[in-house]
Model the fold of this input.
Amino acid sequence: MNLDTLYQEVILDHYKNPLNKKLSTTFDAQVHHINPSCGDEITLNLSAADGSITSITWDGVGCSISQASVSIASDLLAGKTFADAQAITDQFVDLMQSKGKKVGDEAILEDAVALAGVSQYPARIKCALLGWMAVKDAAIQAQSK
Ligand code: ZN
Done:
């Protein structure tokens, strides 16, 4: 199995069995982000305590890349400090802007490296970034409370 096939399976698995796709009843920040160019839409709840993200839950509709990406982000960034979550998000944004030249650091980005190939398709980058920007927005709101 080559890497592309493996990555496609990781994305498809997150799309079919999304993590944390059930909005929590309590939260410190709620955001709604849309990607009109594709029709992707998510609502995301974030809870925080002592400088860390304690939970990220979401609901949404859209293409497999957008939904898989928010599933990955919700799993990866929950439990991290705000600073660590921001650093990881910066790495993911950098990967998405690499035009296919970077593969991503799996030790940091974990399943998100499966989205590396998306950086070759400018029209799909917003799909991949949607969930991450929602977490970033929610984290800023939670910190300013
Ligand atoms: Zn999309």
The beta strands are 29-35, 40-49, 52-61. DSSP finds five helices and three strands in the chain. The helical segments are 3-16, 64-77, 82-96, 106-109, 122-143. Residues 35, 38, 40, 62-63, 65-66, 127 surround zinc ion (CB under 6 Å).
